[in-house]
Design goal:
alpha+beta; 18 helices; ten-stranded antiparallel beta sheet; Secreted peptidase; Ammonium transporter fold; M23ase_b-sheet_dom; globular; 4 domains; 13-stranded antiparallel beta sheet; transmembrane helix; Dup_hybrid_motif; Glucose Permease (Domain IIA)
């Protein structure tokens, strides 16, 4: 929040409450829920995008009116039944709206048709609750599922009431528009039962405002549908052909956009889904034609659900973590890039090092000795001093520096198998029968198991079924099994049987030289160390609920941060401007993630300076991948970032040094905007961190912008029975 430094905090708090008051007014919230309902099953968050969808439905006023009345009815029935939310994201609202649009599309203006449209509300609530619970158990989204059931029922009732049918809409050809573009816009408009060029233009504008990736997927899906229709000899302009194109677009958007991160594989899945949805739509259109029923959303729903059920990790490890929580693709891509940089890659399992202190890599992935073929993803560790693994002549196992050292659990999990009775080999000897020697096998979920092998005879200190955390002692480094010298073998395998194929993994929270890495795969002969966590730094960077921090700038502006706990039990930092970011603390790291809310340059400068801060007590370097929208870019680059979300990204490189004069850590960062991997713009940040006061200052230096802020006030907000307080922070001399 940017306010004069001399502003009264109590008055500022009152202003904030007053500004937030409209969101608490029942009428405002009701209108908000209604408008956002239009785009809820495509997860649109921009008010302008949702209003464009409202405008699309109003291209045929009678149809749009019934859709809006059905949405109002859905919200009123939901409130009357005392339900705050029936389906995830409030999908019952859009299902009610679609059912109302359907009634208006098929039946002529009539008070009885209006009454029928209002009936969509209670049934949308009831059917959404019923279907949503069942689909949730199968890990499937509701989408427009209840619309199919409710819409088909309302059509049957309308026929029983002998309601007059609406005349078919008159299609006005647009002479100057190419036929593929004309049919593309009609297919987009058909998603909201407004199969016109104007309606499609509104839907296209809503897509473009929300996500350029969704626009590209829609274009690709429509092209696939057109080619399929051409091959089958079905006119693209027919109702069957246009409906098939609409189904293809929606299936591609769901399976390749909203429920995964953009990429080549997602595009392939989207294309496959579009092809299947086209064929399914044609099949259902003709199968239901003789029953006088339209297929509605059924083709795209069936294909989307089948693809989600089929492409699951239990059917193939390649699909592990392919499906993500629903979100706009650009946000999913941001999360995926940042997750990979922070050691949370969906393609690799994150482990801690199975030791404390500094060890050497004896053999890495694709190692020349035994890490080949199905067992290529494995790491071997031993200890070396002055280039030697042993003292003296190395004739005895006790001569080896790593023999007898404590081996620790690299993960959270449960012991499912172990062995401890095999004798250790003499140096240079191996046991080719019992290749893994003494070992501990740990189940970590998703059919993944961690094997720690070649342990010392009789040293295993865990029991079957025991629950482990990282760092828990497992035993001692030994020389059992196929091991010519003492070392630790570590891998992740798919399946419980010893010798099962390995899968990619990485080490998190280690130092390779002076690099602190969260996604490390150390190479052979590299030294790997587990850095010591600074308890003083950990205490000073621990944020409590209700804590307030005020940072002042030389120009009189101020950033006031408050720590809060969200409804989903996520901690966050919130500025008075409404800017918010989530906060995570681990045993060795402070991380900020998921930036949303209002734009605030001071807030973003703080996030860039301290977005990823290790809680270790050594000088180190590390990397991160923040969202590109945090960077204070000039307008041309902001436009480029908006247009090219898949090609534009950001990366950060941090370095932290101890300043003996100020007795503080100086944390500097270089933040680059990249286009196809090449740096096109950069800025620098800084953070001053003390072991008693935490982040006491931050800075950002970018072309045309310079920010210097220091901590000026600390406090806690008041709570029931707890008095709030605030005190100034003295400037360091």
């Amino acid at each position: 929040m940017t306010v004069p430094r001399g502003d009264n905090p109590e008055r500022r708090a009152a202003i904030e409450v007053k500004c937030q008051a409209p969101a608490e007014r029942p009428l405002f919230k009701f209108v908000h829920d209604l408008v956002y309902g239009y785009g809820s099953f495509m997860f649109f968050t921009r008010p302008s995008a949702n209003l464009l969808l409202v405008a699309c439905t109003m291209m045929r006023p009678w149809v749009g009116l019934l859709g809006m009345l059905a949405g109002i009815s859905t919200l009123l029935w939901r409130r009357w039944l005392g339900l705050s939310l029936v389906a995830a994201g409030g999908l019952e609202v859009v299902n009610g709206i679609l059912a109302g649009l359907l009634v208006g599309y098929f039946f002529a203006p009539d008070w009885r048709a209006m009454a029928l449209g209002l009936c969509a509300g209670p049934f949308a609530v009831l059917v959404s609750a019923w279907m949503g619970d069942g689909l949730r158990r199968a890990n499937l989204p509701l989408l427009s599922g209840s619309f199919v059931v409710v819409g088909a029922g309302l059509l049957a009732v309308g026929r029983a009431m002998a309601l007059p049918f609406a005349p078919p809409p008159v299609l006005v050809p647009v002479e100057w528009m190419p036929a593929p573009v004309y049919e593309f816009l009609r297919a987009l408009g058909g998603i909201y039962l407004t199969r016109t060029v104007e309606g499609g233009a509104f839907v296209l504008a809503a897509l473009a405002l929300s996500s350029r990736t969704l626009v590209l997927l829609a274009v690709m899906a429509h092209a696939i549908a057109q080619i399929t229709l051409l091959g089958l000899g079905i006119p693209a302009g027919s109702l069957a052909g246009s409906s098939a194109a609409s189904a293809a677009i929606m299936a591609a958007i769901m399976t390749g956009g909203l429920f995964t991160a953009p990429g080549a594989r997602a595009a392939g899945v989207a294309g496959f889904s579009a092809l299947c949805a086209t064929v399914a739509a044609l099949s259902l259109y003709n199968a239901l034609f003789f029953m006088a029923l339209p297929p509605l959303s059924l083709p795209f729903l069936v294909v989307t659900w089948l693809v989600m059920l089929t492409l699951r990790p239990e059917h193939g490890a390649a699909w592990n973590r392919y499906w993500l929580a629903p979100s706009l693709p650009e946000r999913s891509l941001e999360r995926a890039r940042q997750a990979e940089a922070r050691g949370l890659s969906p393609h690799s399992v994150g482990l801690r090092a199975p030791f404390f202190g500094r060890w050497d890599v004896y053999q890495s992935f694709d190692g020349p000795h035994t890490h080949q073929g199905p067992w290529r993803h494995a790491l071997d560790f031993h200890r070396m001093v002055d280039g030697h693994a042993y003292r003296g002549d190395g004739a005895q196992l006790a001569d080896f520096y790593c023999f007898g050292q404590i081996v620790r659990s690299p993960a959270w999990g449960q012991v499912v198998a172990l062995r401890a009775d095999l004798a250790d080999n003499a140096p240079g000897e191996v046991d080719p029968v019992n290749c893994w020697g003494n070992y501990v096998l740990i189940a970590i979920g998703n059919d993944n198991y961690v094997l720690v092998a070649h342990l010392r005879q009789g040293s295993v200190s865990v029991a079957l079924g025991e629950t482990l955390v990282p760092g828990h002692p497992l035993g001692q480094c030994g020389n059992s099994g196929r091991s010519p010298q003492p070392h630790i073998h570590l891998h992740v395998q798919v399946g419980m049987a010893l010798g099962s194929p390995t899968r990619p993994f990485h080490l998190s929270g280690i130092c390779i030289d002076h690099r602190f890495v969260l996604d490390g795969i150390p190479a052979e002969r590299e030294k790997v160390a587990v850095p010591h966590v600074s308890e003083a730094l950990k205490r000073s960077l621990h944020y409590q609920i209700g804590q307030r921090l005020a940072y002042g700038c030389a120009d009189g502006t101020e950033l006031v941060l408050e720590v809060d706990l969200g409804p989903t039990n996520t901690f966050g930092l919130v500025a008075g401007s409404g800017a918010r970011i989530l906060l995570a603390e681990t045993d060795n790291l402070l991380a900020l993630y998921e930036r949303f809310g209002a734009r605030d340059r001071l807030f973003d400068a703080f996030v860039l300076a301290a977005g990823l801060t290790p809680l270790i007590d050594i000088e180190a370097e590390w990397s991160d991948a923040p969202p590109a929208r945090l960077l204070p870019l000039p307008p041309p680059l902001r436009a480029m970032r908006w247009l090219l979300p898949g090609l534009i990204g950001a990366k950060s490189h941090y370095r932290r040094d101890w300043d003996a004069e100020t007795q503080a850590w100086q944390q500097s960062g270089t933040h680059c905007l990249t286009l196809a991997g090449r740096v096109v713009w950069q800025c620098r940040s800084g953070a001053l961190i003390t072991e008693g006061g935490g982040i006491v200052g931050f800075s950002l230096d970018a072309p045309g912008m310079a920010i210097q802020a220091r901590l000026t006030r600390l406090g806690f907000k008041s709570d029931t029975g707890v008095e709030g307080w605030e005190q100034p922070v003295a400037r360091a001399s």
